[in-house]
Amino acid sequence: MSATEKNRQALMALFGSDKLVAMLSGKRIAITLPSASTPPSAMLLATVLSDTLGRLWPNLDFSGEQAEIALSVSEEAARSGGAPTNGLRVAWEPPYDMVVSIGVPAPQAASPSIQVGADGWHVAFGESAACGDSLNPVGPAFAAGLAAAQVFRICFESELAGSGAKPLGNWSIDVRELFNARGLELTDIDLGETHVFGVGAVTHGMAWLLEKWPRKVTGDLNLVDSDNYGSGNGQRYAFMREGSAGTSKVEAIAERLRGHAQLTVTPHSKDMNTYCRDHGYERPLERVVTGLDSEEARRQAALKCPKRTINMWTSESYIGAGQYVPGQGRGCLFCAYPEPVDNPMDEVARFHRHTGLNPEVVRELLSSSRELTAQEALKVSTEKGIPLERIQGEPLRSVLPVLCATGRVLRDDAKGAVDVPFSFSSLLAGVAGFIMLLRDVQLSADVSEGWNQHVFKTPSPLMLSSQKRHLRCVRCTAFELLLAAQNGQP
Ligand SMILES: [Zn+2]
């Protein structure tokens, strides 16, 4: 078998669509670093960009002083998802479909290019985008996520026509402004008691920032998720390593955070409801971070009544993060995901609608946690147009993330959509969640606010909005009745 055919087959197993494999394989992308004296923030940016691009693109050329290091990050990312690495190399052979130059102008003007920079909280695109000496990973990760989204936008411009995608142009911002968090500082942080429910793709993005936070981190961090890595996770999970498939997600993230010697990280390989039942309800949860994959799971997390919640999400071309401290008209997480009343559906009906599996099969799969048979996986794959390899042998609850956190790109023949795993969407949602977490930890304001953003558009502070109490919220209603009773009111 030729190397080209081997590559094609490996990518087919990952992405499941010949059209998409041809689209990705047909593009050559270059990442250029400074030729000498690469500053720390450029290295952080290059690292996270190389990881996220390596999860999607099979042909990447690296050049500049630290090209070998960036290349090895991309290779590890590709291998973690079982993708080929022979199209990843240290080279400069223009013209390219896209050049991303980090902190310096692109070497020549013949290829379409973007120049990206970051330093501390600052991100910049365009002619004056530069990097600096800060070790803060927030700006670099935010810039890398946006740059990776722009690579995709430019390479698939015709397919994304009509989606609202826009170039960033010459644009820069202090990311704290996007989140009404100008008071954030690069200082020691104390997470107190924090529970993370759901250690999926967005939580992996957030975890990288916590891992790289250059100051002391203290507190008691509990990671709650019963899932092991699936073979398809390598497409979206930031810094997932080769050989992780089949191993515990919470254990892997706990291991990554060991560098913070004074942070107590406890992995709990069980689902949120089992964890909370075992934990008991006498003492309320102080802070919960949700990186969950369905609205129903978020409602269930909200019903655990945490005092403070950080929520992160992706949905097709949109990403977002919110902070919820309910009370006095401020919404809780449940308020943000009220139960649908016009077409109420139980979990079985919802899974039936999302997967196409018959309700009796859904009910059995949910209650037994058994994995999808080849025949069931084929039915979901055929009806929903997602790769068979990514769902076969997975439990049903792992199928929803594959359906939710993928963007849809129109095929040329306009007959349907191809699902693309947007590693950059998960990354950006994770960065936004980390900023919300910092906001909660450092500024401790009692507010409920959410930020949502089209991943192919220029981020704006206008996308932050206050999250009000929802009239139909069962959590807030019950909580208010309880408070009234405690205060002796009728
Ligand atoms: Zn509520």
Which residues sit in consecutive blocks of at least 5 with pLDDT less than 50?
A: 410-416
How big is the Rg? Answer: 22 Å
* Overall pLDDT score: 89
Tally of alpha and pi helices: 17
Ligands bound, unique: zinc ion
**CATH homologous superfamily of the largest domain?**
NAD(P)-binding Rossmann-like Domain
User: Per the principal axes of the C-alpha atoms, what is the gross shape?
Assistant: globular
CATH architecture of the largest domain: 3-Layer(aba) Sandwich
The CATH class name of the largest domain reads: Alpha Beta
Q: How are the strands ordered across the major sheet? A: 10-9-8-11-12-13-16-17
Number of strands: 17
The largest sheet is: 8 strands, mixed
Q: Determine the fraction of residues in helical runs and give it as a percent range.
A: 25-40%
Please report the distance between the alpha carbons of the first and last residues: 78 Å
Q: What count of domains describes the coordinates? A: 2
